[in-house]
Amino acid sequence: MNKSNTVFFKNAPRILSSAAVCGSKESEGIIGSYADITLADDMFGESTYEKAECKMLSSAISLVIEKSGLKEENIDVLLSGDLLNQIISASFAARDFTFPFLGLYSACSTMSESILLGAALVDGGYVKTAVCATGSHFASAERQYRYPLELGCTRPPQAQWTVTGAGGLLLGRSDKGIRVTCGTMGRVCDFGVTDVNNMGAAMAPAAADTIIRHFRDTQTGPEDFDLILTGDLGALGSRIVKDLTWEKGFDISNNHVDCGEIIYKVIESEFQGGSGAGCSATVLNSYILTKMNAGLYKRVLFAATGALLSTVSSGQGESIPCISHAVRLEV
Amino acid sequence: MNKSNTVFFKNAPRILSSAAVCGSKESEGIIGSYADITLADDMFGESTYEKAECKMLSSAISLVIEKSGLKEENIDVLLSGDLLNQIISASFAARDFTFPFLGLYSACSTMSESILLGAALVDGGYVKTAVCATGSHFASAERQYRYPLELGCTRPPQAQWTVTGAGGLLLGRSDKGIRVTCGTMGRVCDFGVTDVNNMGAAMAPAAADTIIRHFRDTQTGPEDFDLILTGDLGALGSRIVKDLTWEKGFDISNNHVDCGEIIYKVIESEFQGGSGAGCSATVLNSYILTKMNAGLYKRVLFAATGALLSTVSSGQGESIPCISHAVRLEV
Q: How confident is the model at residue A70 (pLDDT cuts 50, 70, 90)?
């Protein structure tokens, strides 16, 4: 008998509102007509990429609150994090608001970690409302993790494109809205991948581990979900997660969708798709939740994935530990 | 009427065990005879400072579990974070264990943030046990935030010394042990301080804000606590937090103690004391909890503070946003 790592929310916190802001490249794709703000210029009127990233996140948080019909003083806590060193986008965005802030770091799985913890806080009655939000910016991520754009480096075909965008949602008690019914906490998985240009392959085992544990802990299978939504595995990583879950007896191929694979037009031999904390944050909080609210998807398992490396750990010869937190969303 | 930012734990999760690992300089101070492991060599047998930091944290987590009498399979989740970019110490330490990991970032207030969230998860029945841990290393912090030690830079008198050490505790349900009865979530406070060598002054307003809100939310005052314990304000910051709370009508001067001020011998004109996530983690999880278990302190408000800056934010001319999360510990 395996131990359960799934937490159940008896009072099923609801998603009261959601919002997304996305960059110019992103607005040309599937989320373009669903995002609340689409930027013509990815600098968003700021002087640096990092400040633009922070402004997107802050704007998404403001929009989430505005769309819920609540005021800033009705918000009990913000749970947020991002990819930048010391999560400065989240911390500086939190400075714009008067409510408390709980800083998280889970790389590109921050969106699902924040929903999982936010749902526990609301469900347990510790807070009435919680904003969960994250984001990323292509240019700030490139210069922090890889090379400054100005160098004009060539990108290998297995590389993904960090999404410029931010998204968030508001959790609270209500008798309507999408419910967060349970969540499976991620474990660190490291299969020894060291290629920092191949995050999809590094993260796929973590996604498979969490998805399989969710099925086992809740006695469900792929057929119980309209959508099994991963965060940013990209085209190759998505193939790997399907293989890994299939090997364990779960065929998710019919209902698996990866936010990174759908956010841009993907031809796998040329391009793997989107990545970054903003990838699943924008896709979930615009396209997916709109479809759920319209009744097209009734039950979604959202399992964002994160690669927990740094330039220092890679420089010191370490492989890439990865994680995936999953939450179940139901209409 | 101000809104409450304090969460109450009706079932009062208990501290089942705690452990601390500290470096050579730290072992000469007050925690030397209380820590479980004191290092003769701060490299801890590793090839880099970052790996040594990770090993300290991993050792502290192992010790916490061992001292509780439980096994790894009895642990439901680890809540941890640290100061390094992308919290690699915590992520790589989590790789050593099979239980889930929730990554946090709250700079030097990670210890209290982890207890606050861990207590909510245990109190609400979402998990049975939660390990909360963090740490830091002088040499890895210096080269990431300031200059590599090899440069031999002169330190200004208002600078603090990042503690080499890690500490953690295990929360769970029990009928004995120190109780975590409530916690006040921190808000981001920024008084415009830009001097990265003067963290105490930057963080003191955040500590004062949280301590005062805790008093108001719980209808208590300084006299209700045996100890009001801040994390790493240092000598100057401690003076400032006393002034700021005094201005609002709360005189904490008789029972305020700062972990950073007591961890080393401090002469304020020469040296401000310790800092870093490991500062409050080692002092709380060795010296303070031992005294509480012995009945010397019955009620402690633990309010660790964090400076949410990065080298990038400082380089871009930003001031230092700070935060403090507080938890109340009772015998």
A: very high
